[in-house]
Amino acid sequence: MVRALEQEQESYRSRLFHFKGMHENASRHAKSLSVESAAKLEESSLNDDMMFRSQGSNNQPLKSRLGKDEAALQASQAREKQLQADLEQLKERFGKLLLGEDMSGGGKGVSSALALSNAITNLAASVFGEQWRLEPMSAERKARWRREIDWLLSVTDYIVEFVPSQQKNKDGTNMEIMVTCQRTDLHMNIPALRKLDAMLIDCLDNFKDQNEFYYVSRDAPDSEKGNAKRKDDKWWLPTAKVPENGLSDSARKFLQYQKDCVNQVLKAAMAINAQVLSEMEIPENYIESLPKNGRASLGDNIYRSITVEFFDPDQFLSMMDLSSEHKILDLKNRIEASIVIWKRKMNQKDGKSAWGSAVSLEKRELFEERAETILLILKQRFPGIPQSALDISKIQYNRDVGQAILESYSRILESLAFTVLSRIEDVLHADYANNSSETPTSMTLSDFMGWDLDQANPELKKEIADELLKDADGKFMNKITNVVTNKKVSYLENLGGLRSPTARH
Hints:
Low-confidence stretches: 23-42, 48-55, 349-356, 437-505
Oligomer: single chain
């Protein structure tokens, strides 16, 4: 037992000695690590000092990197600032639309349809209102136009209709369900109008590098303007000038090509606009303002000229006084009013009503066709006259948001196309005047566009070039002249799709 105790004590001493040895080794190892770490730290500091001194002797790359980083930071801050400004502008724009242009918030604003129509019209007036020359739009104006028109057109993404669709169940059977998709008229025509929009802006961009004609300030003396000086009422526009020997053949061909392209855009925009207006309901207050018969609307002389046995539209117009825009618009208003009256009488079932008449249905239908022919010829010959009283009334009282956007967008594109065509006409007129011995007589846009009286037929709106209807893949787009809505068709369906642009240019 004593021996066992001694063995246990010996074992304890050996373990204690082993533990002390481990502790001393650990301490020595820790000290070694501390010395090595200090040496490495000192070496690292020395290397860093040497690297700093080396960079100090040649610090151009460092400055370059710092300059790039600072420029990138500034660009990022500028983008963030622009996004914030766009957001605030977007809030303001849609706040005004929701208020219906009534900033008091009293609920006395206009309808959403009219507010959107006015917003698109005002935007176009501010962006394109001073397009006085054949030159590209500034990058700022172009960016603003694309940004804000996208905001306003985004409303159409949420105008939907229900269409039938097939859904396959888990058991393999098919079930017909109703799903939502964008309304058909918007799905067809918004992409088409966007393409027309892009074509007009591209046309202006094509004049970036031209150097064959230039403009003389409106304040310049007549001696500088020469034969090309303006003789119309648009005195504020600069005068186009060409070299003494006129434009080169390539420049003439280029202008002619651009004119043909814009001409097709104008016809397409006018066709869409006229069709949309034809689908709008005629307001009751407009109907209430009409006289009781077509004779009272037209006047005795015009009524007799239309109701003769052998009717010739060219001869009829030759007898009318079309010497001013006011007289042309007055004739247009009278004819449109008579068409509405005759249309209502043909649809009137109660012969004893105030709209009744002794004129037979066949004759009234014949008179209506003649009036529509005259109206179509007027729109072809005078594409720059303002909107008629009927068109203004329809736009003002329309409640369909989709139709309001289509009408206003096509109308401002129509106006811009007319403006570009007028600017091209100015250059061609200057070239013609420079190459002729005497100043030519005033030429109208109809002369340059080739809109003669013999083209007065309802098929004119179908003459849009096939190239205009092709997309990027070469496939044909849906016919942009066929606007589809759920509204009933009114009298303008057979007018041929031409409507005068607003006289903002």
